[in-house]
Amino acid sequence: MTRTSLRLLTTVALAALAVGTVPPAGAAESPEAPLSWVALGDSYTAGVIPPTGAELDPEGAHTGCARTEGSYPRLVAEALGGRVRLTDVACNNAMLAEIAHQGQVPLGSPRDYLEGRTFKAVAPQLAAVDEDTDLVTVGMGGKDSGFGEVVYACAMQEPPRAADGSPVPCEERTRELVEARLASAVREYDDMLRRIHRKAPHAKILTVGYPSIVPEDVSRCTVGDQTQFGHMSRADLEWMRDGVLDPINRVIERQTARHHRYAAYVDTHRSSRGADVCAGRWRWVEGLTAPGYPYPDNVAHVLPNAFGQANTARAVLRAMHREL
What we know:
The protein is α/β, with parallel strands linked by helices. The chain is built from 10 helices and 5 strands, in the order H-E-H-H-H-E-H-H-E-H-H-E-H-E-H. The chain has helices at 3-18, 43-46, 58-63, 72-80, 96-100, 110-114, 147-155, 170-199, 234-258, 306-323; strands at residues 35-41, 84-88, 135-139, 204-208, 263-266. Strands 2-1-3-4-5 form a 5-stranded parallel sheet, sandwiched between helices. Helix 7 runs antiparallel to helix 8.
């Protein structure tokens, strides 16, 4: 596929996604070979939860990776029609090392692990990449930052109490873990990018950052609301935003810049400001639970819904238009 053809197709696809449609049949037809694209990532790439607006794909359900048809790689591929050949190996709960050189035992969807289903190990996601790959997108690092542990310890559990009866702040309980995780993530992200480039030396790598999850003004959040951040106090939320989420985006952006010859960062944070977990009906990321879904399908674990996935799809399409 030529650069000009791809630019035209991404322009059409962006216009279609902006109004919530798919380009008409034939819009992406061309005699050129399709772009070979491998999507790597964690839960934010896989989709995982029903609020993405689509069911689990059969392979994702079988392996336990919980990929949904409403995830941003699927939206981009659908918008570009037959002009891309997508291999989607994103997996719920994945970490950087599990992309690069380790297998992973997937947890499945929230329904799967609440109902006790177990799954076999899957191959490292990088196994899907080869020298014929043209594009690799990778949305990873959140779990490596300690974000999941912070949510579990500080949002899903009531805080322990100090001797005077006051709740122990989340930062005090998790700071050492997060600092160690972030330091490790710097090394792991660099290693991952080098490994991808070695396997696909002609590919462009687009690294996808995380959206706005905690608002700048945490007074908009309701403490104790399970559709938001549960037990987290507003001070805890500020710590999670400033000490965990913003730093992992900086790690991704800075490590990508070190490999700028073949990699580019995709910012999804700016475009999602104001659509965080505490934005009510306008949220693009669900909280601990998603309103309107019966248990266990309401378990959302702070993951993007259909609006959040569509926003990331638009950001990836813009990056493809710019970088390829």
